Amino acid sequence: MPRRPSTLRTVRGAACGLAIATVASTTTTAASATADDVPIELLSFNIRYDNPRDGAHRWANRRELVLETIRDRAPDFVGLQEALPHQRAWLDGELGGGEPTWASLGRARERSMTSGEANPLLHRVDRWERLDGGTFWLSETPERIGSRSWGAACPRIATWGIYRRWSDDGEPDAAALPVLVINTHFDHVSAEARRRGAAAIVEFIEARRAEDRATTVVVMGDLNASPTSPAVRTLLEAGLVDAHRAAGGDETLGTFHGFRGRDAATGRPRIDFVLVDERVAVLEAGIDGDRPDGHLVSDHYPVRATIRRMPADRTAEDSSREVSPTDSPE
């Protein structure tokens, strides 16, 4: 029987089409008081691909700040976007030292696993056991590696994992409810590709829910779309909630600033999201804005949320009574 690990493991998820994405059923009839009542901390972070033309903002000058951001927040799950292989390898190595540690799941969006951007999905190995996971392409052929459709400028992917919290004694907790976490990055050119990509993710979620209605769902990523766009509405209409809005977050600050900081982000729409199952309570959410030292970690601000699963006899409306609205983002 596996026990809770203490070191980072890098897991390369295999391609997984919507029609063939199946995992072992983890259906449960009762929630675990020790595992399922604990808040879950989430972080979505477009770290900006390593572009030599970024000058003072190139990766070599920012990577320690990216690492510090993750370690300081110490979330249960981290969704990264735009990670090139060498960026991911460095972060995997660094996050494998000390406590806590994270395991990394996912593969590059191109045909070659050693080139192109990835959307790695990280989880705290001291808190969560990964049951399954993989990657599918946001295209008409989701199982086809490197595929793209609907006018997308480049292949787009979703990295997914199914997790279960460890018990306090470090053993698998068979009564704990599973969590499905999806990390994605929608196309920056084609609105149709964004909308259809969102629909593909909804189809994947519905297939999982058909196997286990108790599964809690989280979708996070750079959606390259505003909160009122067709792509985001497609996800919300499928039973997901915009955590930032649910927590009463500041709607005057966008998440993309192009290395120009708060002035450039103010008045722009949010395009980075943490979307959560309507059956959870959103305890806190927000945007990690400019650092006090003035350094910019990326050309996007990270976004975060803290949630807690509600007992089975609670309704979605009850979650609004537990929300703790945040102040304006820092």
CATH class: Alpha Beta
Average pLDDT taken over every residue: 86
| Portion in beta strands | 15-25%
Shape: globular
Structural class: alpha+beta
The CATH H-level homologous superfamily = Endonuclease/exonuclease/phosphatase
Number of helices in the DSSP assignment:
6
> Over the alpha carbons, how many angstroms does the gyration radius reach?
18 Å
What are the defining features of this structure?
330 residues; globular; Deoxyribonuclease I, Chain A
Describe this entry's structure for a reader.
The protein has a single domain, classed as 4-Layer Sandwich (Deoxyribonuclease I, Chain A), CATH 3.60.10. It has six helices and 13 strands. It has helices at residues 59-73, 85-95, 191-211, 230-236, 243-246, 262-265, and strands at 10-11, 40-46, 77-81, 102-105, 121-124, 128-137, 157-165, 179-185, 216-222, 240-242, 272-277, 280-287, 303-309. The strands form two sheets. Strands 1-4-5-3-2-13-12 form a seven-stranded mixed β-sheet. A six-stranded mixed β-sheet has the order 6-7-8-9-11-10. Helix 1 (59-73) crosses helix 2 and helix 3 (191-211) packs parallel to helix 4.
Helices and strands, with pairings:
Layout: E1 10-11, E2 40-46, H1 59-73, E3 77-81, H2 85-95, E4 102-105, E5 121-124, E6 128-137, E7 157-165, E8 179-185, H3 191-211, E9 216-222, H4 230-236, E10 240-242, H5 243-246, H6 262-265, E11 272-277, E12 280-287, E13 303-309
Parallel strand pairs: 1-4, 2-3, 8-9
Antiparallel strand pairs: 2-13, 3-5, 4-5, 6-7, 7-8, 9-11, 10-11, 12-13
